[in-house]
């Protein structure tokens, strides 16, 4: 029911403003400026990238199911615009598990480090427990090169003191898991792999805890987000768990390409010249600027949109009470571009926060 | 004598085995002497040692062509697990930056696994030409023959590649190849002097049992009944992913005391490793799986291999049942058959190759690209999606288009006459391939309805005779369940501990 609740909540916020694809991209955490901007616009930042393995097929299928149940109303057959129905709020009231902390998701903040944290922890535990038992022919459950590389480098430093560090991990995990319900802590521990004991697959967890495969994954992500949030606030209580993500917190949130554009801008290169030098379209550079605007605290908006234009755009937003770019564009002077509207929208919602 | 001692010592030093298994040493000795060898060794007999040990002993790099990426990756993991680190699996799914790093250092590896598609790329060929190749291995060599059970057109180009690499000694390996396929391998590789080492694939500790039922409901009842009696390590093979999930669920409900899971190629990587290793570790009793499971897995005590659906040919059936009883103890291979099942393999055969309709569509599409002066998209998956083909179908067609000179490096060469001719040829080829597959299916149907000894007829196309049977032979020679009494798995003490004790046990181990 967690997955269904989240989908319905997203539809409730978005209604006719976007097609269902925007929800799909939001949950998968697509790194496009449109998706990030939508997350801010509809105040769905916390669900950004919380279900990265979601497939298009499964998403469509689930939306259809919700429609068949009368919880969603599809507007036209060509495009996937959905409206919530009268039944939706009733359903949410009866089915949404009150005890489940939907508001604790922090997708936009943690989506990049969630998997890394979990993968590193899982593989490190598998490595240390096996190494402690002098058993080196185990098959690692994680085979992503970046994770394996990190665990190797850490293992080199901890080798010989496995017992000591396993005891520290035990103490810290025990302490932090006490913040969670018995079921949540159970799921987390059942997923771990040790010496001659392999953790449970998502399907096995689903069968054991009587939750759908979707919900099990969403429960784990929710749990990790809360765990990461605890780590940020109580670093000193969890030195080892904090160490696992220490090197990640400082990484810039800009995409690589946007970062390059940012560096050029700081050297005073114009948008046109950046596009020419980097052999990119002007539109792409505009996307980078919006990405930069979303993250940069002192973004010089007036360089790109003068105060009068800003006001005109804001008025149009109020008038149309819509966030569809086309509707807004029709309300403003022809000389104002889509790029300018998007930039103002991006910053407007940032300031609202 | 001296060399004999050395070889066994080397085997022990690198792989921690004290002695060779049947056939390994003979093949390795010939390889080390620089001869070209064709080795036919049954599944589970340690085929890979035949090239892994020479790779360690020879100066230079050993190249292994393998058709299945998951198999390559498994092999590399297992080698790394026993501290053999100079190995790598090169395939098109690899991260490009990762691949570049490997390319810079090819000579530093002892063993390079590579997919046949990747070997078509000029870049890698150029790099390999500058590297000392001591041995060229073709795993699953039956893929080169259209009479083999998994014909791979990419394999046909291997003879040219071997030539380009200055003819290193070549070792072709397969678990199942009839004499016709063996001759095909030698001819198509253009190595008439290849030395053949062929070992029988019959297994004296396996009993064969075919049970005809009228529908799926009866299959489930039959399974439940026998799995209740026999608490042993069990594999159940299915021909579809969804069936593995459904039956695993139904069986779990009927047999709550058994630990049952499913496994197929559509699962997340971490879950696949997890399920596989739980089974290896005896944390699971029964796995419902597709043919994706089992390759490269060596578990001694699998007692029971069941086929819920009809396999597509005898070759894959022999490979799959070959996973039972590797420890030499009496094991049973059960095939459940219902007349209603027939449409499944027929559909699968149809789907393996593009239909005539699709072929026509693709020709039109290609002509349009030509008239718009466009190239093919770079991304293989994108192309497959565009034409609504699965990956296997597109690979087949791409090879044909290249062979007929219609495409080269994504550029399309249009010549009306030639295209008309190639269209007819490809259409005919699809017909031929389909009829070969139907023939293979007929073979297995004939075997199922066989009145004589199942064992004799299963192996008759592969070897002239079979060895004495240890226990019961087959359901046609007389098979009784009551006489099969394998050692049962000990009932696990199912203490459901709370999370804290579990965590303690997992991390502190001794402190419980």
UniProtKB/TrEMBL annotation, chain A:
InterPro entries assigned to the protein according to its UniProt record, in alphabetical order: Helicase_HTH (IPR029491), WH-like_DNA-bd_sf (IPR036388), YpbB-like (IPR008308)
Pfam annotation, one family: HTH_40
Gene3D superfamilies tied to this protein: ATP-dependent DNA helicase RecQ (1.10.10.1390), Winged helix-like DNA-binding domain superfamily/Winged helix DNA-binding domain (1.10.10.10)
Domain Helicase Helix-turn-helix positions: 258-345
GO biological process: DNA repair; DNA replication
Molecular functions per Gene Ontology: 3'-5' DNA helicase activity
Name of the protein in its database record: Helicase Helix-turn-helix domain-containing protein
Record organism: Oceanobacillus arenosus
Lineage, highest ranks first: Bacteria, Bacillati, Bacillota, Bacilli, Bacillales
TrEMBL record, chain B:
GO biological process: one example: DNA repair
PROSITE patterns: DEAH_ATP_HELICASE (PS00690), HELICASE_ATP_BIND_1 (PS51192), HELICASE_CTER (PS51194)
Recorded GO CC terms: bacterial nucleoid; cytoplasm; replisome
Keywords of the record: ATP-binding, DNA-binding, Helicase, Hydrolase, Nucleotide-binding
Cross-referenced Gene3D superfamilies: P-loop containing nucleotide triphosphate hydrolases (3.40.50.300)
Organism domain of life: Bacteria
InterPro entries documented for this protein: DEAD/DEAH_box_helicase_dom, DNA/RNA_helicase_DEAH_CS, DNA_helicase_ATP-dep_RecQ, Helicase_ATP-bd, Helicase_C-like, P-loop_NTPase
MF terms in GO: 3'-5' DNA helicase activity; ATP binding; DNA binding; four-way junction helicase activity; hydrolase activity
Domain Helicase ATP-binding, chain residue ranges per copy: 28-195
Xref: Pfam families: DEAD, Helicase_C
Chain ranges of the Helicase C-terminal domain: 222-370
Protein name: ATP-dependent DNA helicase
Organism: Oceanobacillus arenosus
Lineage: Bacteria, Bacillati, Bacillota, Bacilli, Bacillales
């Amino acid at each position: 029911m967690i997955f269904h609740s989240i989908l319905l909540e997203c539809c409730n916020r978005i209604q006719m403003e976007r097609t269902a694809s925007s929800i799909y991209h939001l949950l998968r955490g697509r790194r496009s400026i449109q998706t990030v901007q939508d997350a801010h616009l509809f105040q769905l930042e916390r669900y950004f990238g919380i279900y990265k393995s979601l497939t298009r097929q499964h998403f469509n299928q689930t939306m259809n199911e919700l429609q068949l149940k009368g919880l969603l109303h599809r507007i036209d057959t060509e495009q996937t615009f959905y409206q919530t129905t009268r039944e939706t709020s009733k359903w949410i009231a009866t089915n949404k598990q009150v005890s489940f902390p939907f508001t604790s998701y922090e997708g936009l903040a943690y989506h990049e480090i969630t998997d890394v944290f979990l993968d590193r922890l899982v593989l490190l535990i598998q490595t240390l427990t096996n190494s402690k038992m002098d058993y080196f022919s185990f098959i690692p459950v994680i085979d992503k090169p970046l994770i394996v590389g990190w665990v190797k480098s850490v293992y080199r430093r901890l080798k010989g003191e496995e017992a000591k560090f396993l005891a520290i991990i035990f103490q810290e995990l025990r302490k932090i898991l006490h913040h969670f319900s018995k079921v949540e802590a159970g799921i987390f521990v059942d997923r771990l792999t040790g010496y001659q004991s392999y953790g449970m697959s998502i399907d096995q967890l689903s069968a054991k805890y009587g939750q759908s495969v979707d919900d099990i994954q969403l429960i784990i992500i929710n749990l990790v987000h809360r765990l990461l949030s605890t780590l940020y606030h109580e670093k000193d209580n969890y030195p080892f768990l904090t160490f696992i993500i220490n090197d990640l917190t400082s990484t810039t949130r800009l995409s690589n390409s946007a970062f390059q554009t940012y560096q050029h801008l700081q050297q005073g290169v114009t948008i046109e010249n950046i596009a020419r030098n980097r052999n990119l379209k002007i539109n792409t550079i505009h996307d980078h600027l919006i990405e930069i605007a979303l993250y940069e605290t002192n973004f010089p908006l007036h360089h790109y949109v003068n105060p009068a234009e800003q006001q005109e755009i804001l008025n149009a937003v109020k008038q149309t009470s819509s966030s569809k770019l086309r509707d807004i564009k029709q309300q403003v002077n022809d000389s104002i571009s889509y790029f300018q509207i998007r930039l103002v929208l991006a910053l407007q919602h940032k300031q609202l926060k | 004598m001296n060399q004999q001692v050395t070889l066994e010592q080397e085997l022990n030093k690198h792989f921690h085995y004290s002695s060779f298994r049947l056939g390994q040493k003979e093949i390795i000795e010939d390889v080390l002497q620089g001869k070209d060898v064709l080795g036919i060794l049954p599944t589970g007999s340690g085929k890979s040692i035949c090239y892994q040990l020479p790779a360690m002993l020879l100066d230079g790099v050993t190249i292994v062509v393998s058709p299945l990426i998951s198999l390559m990756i498994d092999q590399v993991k297992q080698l790394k697990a026993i501290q053999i680190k100079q190995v790598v699996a090169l395939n098109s799914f690899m991260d490009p930056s990762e691949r570049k790093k490997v390319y810079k250092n090819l000579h530093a590896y002892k063993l390079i696994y590579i997919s046949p598609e990747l070997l078509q790329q000029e870049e890698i060929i150029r790099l390999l030409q500058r590297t000392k190749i001591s041995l060229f291995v073709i795993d699953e060599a039956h893929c080169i023959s259209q009479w083999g059970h998994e014909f791979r057109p990419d394999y046909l180009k291997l003879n040219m590649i071997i030539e380009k690499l200055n003819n290193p000694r070549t070792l072709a390996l397969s678990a199942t190849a009839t004499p016709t396929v063996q001759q095909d391998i030698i001819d198509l590789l253009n190595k008439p002097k290849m030395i053949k080492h062929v070992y029988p694939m019959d297994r004296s500790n396996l009993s064969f049992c075919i049970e005809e039922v009228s529908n799926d409901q009866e299959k489930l009842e039959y399974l439940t009944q026998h799995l209740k009696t026999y608490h042993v390590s069990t594999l159940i093979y299915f021909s579809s992913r969804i069936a593995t999930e459904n039956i695993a669920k139904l069986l779990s409900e009927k047999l709550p005391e058994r630990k049952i899971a499913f496994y197929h190629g559509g699962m997340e990587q971490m879950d696949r490793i997890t399920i596989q290793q739980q089974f290896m570790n005896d944390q699971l009793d029964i796995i419902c799986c597709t043919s994706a499971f089992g390759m490269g897995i060596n578990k001694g005590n699998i007692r029971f291999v069941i086929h819920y659906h009809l396999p597509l040919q005898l070759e894959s059936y022999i490979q799959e049942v070959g996973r039972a009883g590797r420890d030499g103890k009496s094991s049973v291979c059960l095939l459940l058959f219902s007349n209603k099942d027939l449409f499944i393999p027929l559909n699968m055969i149809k789907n393996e190759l593009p239909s005539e309709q699709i072929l026509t569509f693709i020709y039109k599409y290609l002509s349009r690209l030509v008239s718009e002066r466009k190239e093919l998209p770079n991304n293989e998956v994108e192309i497959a999606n565009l034409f609504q083909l699965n990956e296997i179908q597109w690979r087949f067609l791409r090879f044909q288009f290249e062979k007929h000179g219609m495409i080269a490096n994504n550029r399309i060469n249009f010549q009306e006459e030639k295209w008309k001719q190639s269209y007819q040829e490809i259409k005919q080829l699809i017909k031929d391939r389909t009829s070969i597959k139907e023939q293979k299916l007929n073979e297995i149907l004939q075997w199922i309805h066989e009145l004589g000894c199942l064992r004799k007829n299963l192996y008759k196309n592969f070897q002239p005779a079979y060895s004495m049977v240890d226990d019961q032979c087959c359901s046609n020679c007389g098979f009784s369940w009551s006489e099969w009494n394998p050692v049962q798995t000990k009932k696990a003490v199912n203490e459901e501990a709370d999370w804290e004790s579990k965590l303690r046990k997992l991390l502190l181990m001794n402190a419980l």
